[in-house]
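From the pipeline queue, job 12 of 40. The input is one protein chain; the requested action is below.

Action: predict structure.
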Amino acid sequence: MTQKAINYGIVLYQLGISQDMVEEIKALVDGSPELVFALANPVVSHADKRKVVDRVFDRFGNKDLVNFMKTLCDNDGFDMIHDIFDEYEKYAREQQDILSATLYYVTPPTDKQKAGIENFLMKEYGSKAVQLSMVEKKELIGGFVIRTGDREYDRSILGRYKSLRQKLVMR
């Protein structure tokens, strides 16, 4: 992720573009690779890109959005639109005090276990809510790993095995 994409994502959020609108734009962009190709293509003139932006994004009824997209094209930044959307979502979660975490598991947790993990993370980080992504990872053998930001909570059998092995090697 480039700093430029991070900055654009933050600006998109600060313009007051709703998350629903961003999801609509994301669906439009994902469904039209030709649009992305045209707006990211350095051979297409900035004037032509601005015309396309007017035709495509004017239907959202938000002049700030249209101007944002034009600025993105003028600065040859449309090729990082997906990174910008990711950064928008990340920044929106931060502003709403929602912690993003990933749970790696062998066996899916019960609703009660999932709620316990979310409560633990909310208390640990002082967040209002947790957005928990779930990823199956059979190589853990058993247990689970929680990753958020630069911290990891490893409660897996594989993690315990590696820790024990390292302790034995150190002796």
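Job complete. The chain is about 60% helix and 15% strand.
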